[in-house]
């Protein structure tokens, strides 16, 4: 497993991964208007890390500018359950300079359980255009 900063040549694959992984993770949402270019807007001005397994891109994570908000973490649905998400999350933890934060859709029970297993704690809930979310924090050391 290799995790590296993204390169522009990753864009076509990550666009496709982002589109398909969201449809898989959020089946209750109407994804008919989602487009490949949504990746560009969702990661604009963010630090992106790409996970590779045997030289193949299998997932990515993106952090906002200050580095303490995990905005996206998506794994190719065909590659889930192999520790890729855990490796990406551990990599992200190393880049936090303070308490890490993320928002996870409340209906995404699989993701909530994943983050909790990795030391994240629910802090609050809120509403978004995609439904209720849980604000989670990860405290360093």
From TrEMBL:
Keywords recorded for this protein, A-Z: Acyltransferase, Transferase
CDD domains: NAT_SF
GO MF, one annotated term: acyltransferase activity, transferring groups other than amino-acyl groups
PROSITE patterns attached to this UniProt entry: GNAT
Cross-referenced SUPFAM superfamilies: Acyl-CoA N-acyltransferases (Nat)
Boundaries of every N-acetyltransferase domain copy: 1-141
Domain of life: Bacteria
Protein name from the UniProt record: GNAT family N-acetyltransferase
